[in-house]
Amino acid sequence: MRRAWAVVRLVAVAAWAIARANLRLAVLVLNPLRLNRPRFIRVPIRVRKDAAITALANLITLTPGTLTVDVAPDRTSLLVHVFDLEEEEAAVAEIQDRLERVVAEVFE
């Protein structure tokens, strides 16, 4: 039952992240005067199982404005491209605190 609740939380967190990112990306794209700040960031990860890493990488990629590009050979971090990066620490924290935490509840 605990895992079922974790799956429900994962779906809810993913839906919220995707919806919020869609709105933010729409504002960026529709505002021709605003310059985006694309960057690559390295996101340290705590999950170690292949399924968890794959789920996290896919969840990041499904979120508009972000794309998982690579997994470190030692599987301790992900290379993520961000379409418009305001603060690197905030982006890393959001991925770790929101997305990775719920992925870990389901897969670890």
Summarize this entry quickly.
With 108 residues, this protein is an alpha+beta fold. The protein is built from three helices and three strands. The radius of gyration is 14 Å and the shape is globular.
Give a structural overview:
The structure is a single chain. This protein is an alpha+beta fold. The protein has one domain. The chain is built from 3 helices and 3 strands; from the N terminus they run αβαββα. It has helices at 2-30, 50-62, 88-107; strands spanning 39-44, 66-71, 77-82. It has a 3-stranded antiparallel β-sheet, covered by helices on one side. Strand 2 and strand 3 (77-82) form a beta hairpin. Helix 1 (2-30) runs antiparallel to helix 3 and helix 2 (50-62) packs across helix 3 (88-107). The longest helix has 29 residues, at 2-30. The radius of gyration is 14 Å and the shape is globular. The chain starts with a helix and ends with a helix. The mean pLDDT is 92.
